[in-house]
Design brief:
Length: 452
Amino acid sequence: MRDRPGATTHQLDPHVRRILERAELEGVELIRFLYADHGGVIRGKAASRSRLAERLGTGIGHTVAMMAMNMLDQLQEVEQMGPVGEVRIVPDPTTYVPLPYAPGGAAMLSDLRLPDGSPWDACPRTFLKDAVAALADEGYSLVAAFEPEFTLGRRLPDPAGGLDRLVPLDDSLCYSATGFDTAHDYTMKLVRALEDQGLRVEHYHPELGHGQQELSVRHAPALRAADNHVLYRETVRGVALRMQMWASLAPKPLADQAGNGAHLHLSLWRDQRNVLAEDGAARAGFIGGLMAHLPALTALTCGSVNSFRRLAPRSWAGAYAVYGPDNREAALRVCSPLGESGEPNLELKPSDSSANPYLSLGAVIHAGLDGIRRGLDPGEPVDVDPDTRPGRYPRLPSSLDEALDALEADEVLMEALGPLRRRAYLAVKRSEATAFAARDVGFELAHHLRVF
Ligand code: GLU
Ligand code: MG
């Protein structure tokens, strides 16, 4: 099917008109249409400003095969994702942002649609939108924020032609004042770049690991929270590159240092009230659903081989399938509210930035919703470090393959993913597990810090 000229109708849309005006005024020449793939990689194509009016309507043509590509750029064999077939990368006009770290560039978060404009079964952003809609059908909405950590440093090529290494910026201590100073110039640029894109910065601190930073942004409705996380990942990397540095959000870019989480903060709302603030059936069911599906969820929230190097006990990454009030070793921490106006929220710790945020948040919604619908019992909260009670509490999967086994056994999540998406996701992730199992840890670290 040929592209439809979209300019005429879409110029009537106020969002579109504003984008075109802004792009011209702000000297933007290339607009990146971004999406996240099954390998958790952010990819896209860019439209020139001169073609933007039309491309906002038609999207840019793309091969279906890219959703069968793994994080090593190895194409997997997936039925209906071969060399024949076409989708469109169609940007959401409400997400347009000029990129402060890429002068002349802007970005828009995009859906993958069929040429006739209908959503494609393997579009990750559509998966999250559908989950949000299913939750709304039951009268609820979800507010979320990713709380990412990352490692800042320089990427050093191996003079012998081997794999690059990440040399961390500093060896400052956790939360230390020295760490604030060593990373200050970068952090200031990052804060400004995020704020310029409409992400509101909440907190920052130098983290435990060498070169490790944590900077959190304000919560938002679920789809916006996932979009924000894509922009965040891009900005962390982009700002570093402009300063001849390298930033990695990989779960464990340095084997002997603390891992990088992207804890997922969640609150559930009904009729303008935070359901988590009330000790009711919906709260219990939502937590019960997350607990019941946790092992399978990790296949989506901890999306890479490297994720499971991070997801270990005694590292505050939430390696045990338990929940508890302010328990930093529980997979699900029930966070106490900050001050009188603060809202209680849940913090899912087995979550990192190698996940596709749309799939991860969508799956979390489906898990919680299942718990509400079936009135699942979350069991007793745990108020000790579960690792101090050997054999008492269940561990989460300790490898990507184990997590994928749990996912395949989880009827609710498999059904939610649907045939095409689950086939592709499993093929891509199984291929990564196999590819990294055949190589050493250095290969795993080098490739994860390159991509994430
Ligand atoms: N770095 C830890 C992780 O991998 C989290 C530490 C913290 O609680 O901030 O999740
Ligand atoms: Mg932290």
